[in-house]
Write a structure and sequence with these properties.
Layout (H helix, E strand, L loop, with lengths): L1 H17 L8 H38 L9
């Protein structure tokens, strides 16, 4: 998912270059379009971090259980 979003952002940046000679599309529109792509990437990164932290928390919680999985002396 992150790779696809990076590719989309790359395409957005490239499209601004391809359309630079078109006076009917203001630079501010290109900038806003790219900013939206960056915001989606940041949201995706934040979500991935939350998922990772939840997984780590569950793993650590399993390690704290009183139940022994291996017979130790």
């Amino acid at each position: 998912a992150m790779g696809a979003e990076l590719e989309e952002l790359r395409e957005r940046v490239a499209s601004a270059e391809l359309l630079r000679d078109r006076a009917d599309i203001p630079l501010s529109v290109h900038i806003e379009n790219i900013q939206l792509g960056v915001e989606r990437l940041e949201a995706g990164r934040d979500h991935a971090k939350l998922v990772e932290n939840e997984y780590l928390r569950k793993t650590l919680d399993r390690g704290k259980s009183d139940e022994k999985l291996i017979d130790s002396r």
